[in-house]
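Q: I'm writing up a methods section and want to include an example of the input and output format. Could you take the sequence below and give the corresponding predicted structure tokens, formatted cleanly so I can copy it straight into the document?
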Amino acid sequence: MAMTPDEFYEHALAATDDAHRLPLARMTGWEISPFEQEGLSVTPLRPPVVPEPPRHGEDPAECGSCGRRDQGIWFNERWRLTRVQEVGVPLVLMLHPRDHYDMADLPDELAAELGVLTTHIVRHVQALPHISRAHVYRIGDGGAHLHIWFFARPEGQTQMYGSWLPVWDDLLPEYPADLADADADQVAESLLKSAGGTRTAAEASGTPTA
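A: Here is the clean output for your methods example:
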């Protein structure tokens, strides 16, 4: 059985210094880390917050993603793909179910579709010129409506390998929007050919459900 919140906090606290700071993670010493270890410190460990605060969109009636179910660059009856604006890497896309589901709530049919669509999107992002990898992330602590992130790693930027890529994305200057739009359009067109769907929501609109 997992530790209780208080037990976990006490367990972690035992590894901290007098200011409740944990030692630097091993990954800060990796060659791909965007930070130099000298002068870097960890935020003091804070006690658990129980019950946790609600995420955005816990109530489908107040869910922003449901309100934007007809916005995106590609659609089918159940899914939509959007381009995330103002990013530092060449392209960041997000896949959302059009109805109100979190990962654990997905019916098996939609879960199977998610796997297939994820594979197709990765394939099409990696087919873009000067893109080496498409990293896929699902977090879910901020929003209750499922959203899958796709980050395009620029070719040759080996310093941006692996799990630090979203941090590098936040540090980099904003990538030119016209180039990102063109690449997003290419992914959407490729997805039309490989998975069907449409570039507009009109053919696939409906009423959000919980």
